[in-house]
Write a structure and sequence with these properties.
It comes from Anaeromyxobacter oryzae. With about 375 residues, the chain is α+β, with helices and mostly antiparallel strands. The protein has three helices and 20 strands. The protein is about 15% helix and about 30% strand.
């Protein structure tokens, strides 16, 4: 005789049907509880997704804010943290590399906040031992938002890095890209939030200037599409090149050219803003070349002025990508500009690639460029 199946009580049936849902909800609750312990950054003055207030906006370049850095707070710090680094970066700035507004690093692991106005060097508000890095405004300390009038609102990314080292080994002359590179290389974890700021006005174009037929740039040492030779590679940070700047020649500048700006830029550097390797502006319109080895400190290649690279020097700095990276691209660009005196617009030997890039775009007629690669 076939045995009849055992019938379950209605309550048991309900429990069997609900058990998967109960387990799923329990798992979700557990995950949510873990999520609440995630490394987190916030500010009482700047809301994530909100608008930066006037108190935090820059004072200058047409902006009239208070230029006071906001209070920042963080919690749920990962185990093993020995120090912190904080950065504020605008990825929308029309410079070719964004714009670094603040870096402060070597913040002790005991800190859980930065007080309001901690971004003013020397006022005693920042944690003892912390260092304020060199921003794209050409100074150490906080510099608030100040996008071009009429631009769509720019994004301002506030980031904190929890680091496995007590110090990055950098000083107040370290540009934003170098601070970011060092922080990323030594981080245990990082977290960010983004706010926006824009200001009214008539929109102006900050487009990358076009290439034009006949305007060319070349080098006898660095072949276009080829590999940067060891002689031009950096000497330091694990690289063993000679750090000799290449010779460059150009021809066919467009009508109306009053001067030139030369840049060498690595868009693949793991910094969040690429890496400026060489900057020369106010090259006279009569120049047609820069000799090999002209990028030494204190020199005036082809009569121009060398800007402040992301190595933190006003001189040529050759390729030196992280070991094991896919070969990086090194873009050599010559801009024909309609001004013979960009120094009159505030540029000098301590001007960073971000600031030089911004001024150059507003003055450029055309560009000539070539790209080479290097990896190790």
């Amino acid at each position: 005789m076939q045995q009849r199946p055992t019938l379950l009580a209605p309550a048991a049936v309900a429990m069997r049907l609900l058990l998967p849902l109960v387990l799923a909800l329990a798992a979700a609750a557990l995950l949510a509880g873990c999520g609440s312990d995630k490394f987190d950054l916030s500010s009482p003055q700047v809301a994530p997704g909100g608008t930066v207030s006037a108190e935090q906006v820059f004072d200058g370049f047409g902006c009239t804010g208070g230029n006071v850095s906001p209070e920042l707070r963080w919690k749920h710090v990962p185990a093993g943290t020995k120090s912190f680094a904080v950065t504020v970066f605008d990825p929308d700035a029309p410079t070719g590399s964004g714009f670094w507004h603040w870096t402060i690093f070597d913040i002790p692991a005991s800190a859980s906040s930065l007080a309001r106005d901690a971004g003013k060097p020397g006022n005693g508000v920042a944690p003892a031992g912390s260092v304020q890095g060199y921003t794209d405004f050409g100074a150490s300390g906080y510099g608030g938002p100040c996008p071009p009038a009429g631009d769509p609102a720019h994004r301002y990314v506030f980031t904190i890095h929890a680091l496995k080292v007590d110090s990055l080994g950098l000083d107040a002359n370290a540009p934003g890209a170098l601070v970011s590179f060092s922080a990323r290389a030594n981080e245990i974890a990082s977290t960010s939030f983004t706010a926006k700021y824009g200001r009214p006005g008539t929109p102006t174009s900050h487009e990358i200037p076009p290439t034009v037929s006949g305007f060319t740039l070349s080098s006898a040492e660095v072949p276009a599409g080829g590999t940067v030779p060891a002689e031009q590679v950096f000497d330091g940070f694990g690289c063993t090149g000679a750090n000799v700047s290449p010779g460059l020649e150009w021809t066919g500048a467009p009508q109306g050219t009053e001067g030139f700006v030369l840049t060498m830029y690595d868009p693949d550097a793991p910094t969040g803003s690429g890496f400026w390797h060489w900057l020369v502006f106010d090259i006279p319109a009569t120049a047609t070349s820069i000799p090999k080895g002209a990028g030494i400190p204190g020199a005036s290649p082809a009569g121009g002025t060398q800007g402040y690279t992301d190595f933190g020097v006003s001189a040529y700095g050759g390729p030196c990508p992280p070991a094991g990276d896919k070969p990086h691209r090194y873009v050599f660009t010559l801009y024909a500009v309609k001004s013979a005196d960009l120094a009159s617009q505030g540029l000098g030997p301590t001007s960073t690639g971000g600031l030089i890039g911004f001024v150059t775009r507003s003055a450029a007629l055309a560009r000539a460029e070539f790209t080479a690669t290097y990896g190790r």
